[in-house]
Amino acid sequence: MRQETPTLIGHVDSVKGGVITIRLRDEVPTFMMVDGRSYRMGQVGAFLRIPLGYTQLYAVCTLVGAAAAPLFGKMESPPGHRWLSATLFGESIGGVFERGVSQYPTIEDEVHLVSPQDMRVIYGSAKEERSITVGHIAAASGISGKLDLGRMVTRHAAVVGSTGSGKSNLLAVLLEAIATQGFPAARVLVIDPHGEYGSAVGQYGRVFRINPDNSKEELPLYVPYWALPFDELQAIALGPMQPGAETAVRDEVTARKKDAIKHLAVKPPLAAITADSPIPFSLKKLWFDLDDFERRTYKKDRETPCDKTRNGDPEKLEPNQYPPPSPASKEPYAHPRPRNIRKQLELMRSRIQDSRYSFLFQPGEDLLPNLDGVMKGDLHDLVRSWVGHDKPLTVLDVSGLPPEVLSTVVGTLIRIVYDMLFWALDLPISGRNQPLLVVLEEAHIFLPEGGDSAAHRTIAKIAKEGRKYGVGLCIVTQRPGEIESTALSQCGTMIALRLTNSADRTKVEGAMPDDLGALSGMLPALRTGEGIVLGEAMPIPSRIQFFKARKRPRGDDPEMPDAWRKERPDDNQYKAALNNWRHQTQITGKEESDA
């Protein structure tokens, strides 16, 4: 009689592709001890081992039942019959683990519990030099939760979780791990729409934001208007126009960009210049000339403009003045062929003068062209300040941007970086030689299902093509149900924290990179800070308890109820809050609140 090992729990009952049904032995208790370790039977997400000669197959439990599934080959199940359903995910030969299986089990093959030695075989396949440690495996104490950084970056990743599930903490842990675990040349660009992560990167990164706090070594965020494609610039500065007027303005912008290349150190061919080319030109001069064209009145021949009654100043956005047209059929005559864009020009003038748009229309001394299109710096200086410095992390805090242009501006700044690395080709700074990870927080804002914004187009392009050019994407969202399905399906790694919304779980289940949809049923029951990692970055689907970030993101939950046990703060601080609001920056000193 064959002696049974203590880890034996049952036998294979049926096989359907990678899904197997296991009949548990009658004498196996729900709680059992093996070699001094306790095991609970029938845990969803637990690992199982099926020995096939020198090969060990591994599966994850996805379903548990009793007397509901008939025994293989029999019409009825005996009373109390217990069974498990599991999905195969990998195998080991000679102690070396690999994803996928080369052979399948057959009826009556033994099924065993996974021992600590098996866990070391499985997780030992992760290469130390390619991995970052972000927590520990929930099902095996003492085994670190490591993510393959190379696969996570180049194959894209998604982090999903409901509010309060630990999503911000996880992202802070990921950033901290990249910065501190031996990757000094890393390049990570975080798009932060709520201003959460400036406090989390600390000494390992640079923070760019509207109205920066110099005491925290923050830097101003600029996105020069002349780097925007014409359609985006028109949407922000001019608004909708008739097709004829739009074509005329586009041609005018193209002509000014072609004229401006004479000021560039390296001059591109004229044939390559379009209205979308990132060539500097003066928007004030464009407004002044377009406005002058609309205001002109004409003499009797209707070809010669009347003399000006006052000379304007393009630098101050003061228009030329002409004698008003006569209501009768005599001089001065109105413009015979106006473009009828006076309303759009008023909007452009207003936007240029609006302090909320200074990051775009007043992009710093070095990136603001004079009236002739000449400036001190260039676009490479901007990209170098974002991703070319000596720190691994960069946070672009876009919380201060006007909501109506947020998606357009974010799409533009990502496109600027992506195009710069794309055209770097074989240079050392190219994405292929020094990959870049773009982390998109609150991705549902920029990647809504069926959207067509600048951000949507650029991010979707990176999701589809970025891998070839060394640009990785990490989508972070609390509403995966609203995310563009195509972009989500391109993510080779899925980190799913607690999700309670059924629509979100359905979307995540459909996009899971592993065929383990039944595990999505665990998502509502996950603890805070705990998540299921599936796909390229882990050797197997794993449940990980993530570390607590050393520096908390500002978006973490407030300290409750301790905050309510303290004394009430000085009510003069409301005056400081009003100053923050009016100045669009943070004023925290007591002297400001008492002023």
What order do the helices and strands come in, and which of them pair?
Elements: E1 8-16, E2 19-24, E3 31-34, E4 37-40, E5 47-52, E6 55-66, E7 82-93, E8 96-99, E9 110-113, H1 116-123, E10 131-137, E11 144-148, H2 149-154, E12 157-160, H3 167-180, E13 188-192, H4 198-201, E14 205-209, E15 219-220, H5 230-237, H6 243-260, H7 283-295, H8 342-353, H9 358-361, H10 364-367, H11 379-387, E16 393-397, H12 406-422, E17 436-440, H13 443-446, H14 454-465, E18 471-477, H15 485-489, E19 493-496, H16 502-511, E20 530-535, E21 542-546, H17 562-565, H18 573-583, H19 590-594
Parallel strand pairs: 12-18, 12-19, 13-16, 13-17, 14-15, 14-16, 17-18
Antiparallel strand pairs: 1-2, 1-9, 2-7, 3-4, 5-6, 5-9, 6-7, 7-8, 10-11, 10-21, 19-20, 20-21
Helix pairs in contact: 7-8, 12-14
Provide structural commentary.
With 595 residues, the protein is of the alpha/beta class. The protein folds into 4 domains: 8-125, no CATH class; 132-137 and 143-224 and 363-546, P-loop containing nucleotide triphosphate hydrolases (Rossmann fold); 230-358, no CATH class; 570-594, no CATH class. The protein is 28% helix and 20% strand. The chain has 19 helices and 21 strands. The chain has helices at residues 116-123, 149-154, 167-180, 198-201, 230-237, 243-260, 283-295, 342-353, 358-361, 364-367, 379-387, 406-422, 443-446, 454-465, 485-489, 502-511, 562-565, 573-583, 590-594, and strands at residues 8-16, 19-24, 31-34, 37-40, 47-52, 55-66, 82-93, 96-99, 110-113, 131-137, 144-148, 157-160, 188-192, 205-209, 219-220, 393-397, 436-440, 471-477, 493-496, 530-535, 542-546. The strands form 3 sheets. The protein has a 12-stranded mixed beta sheet with strand order 11-10-21-20-19-12-18-17-13-16-14-15.
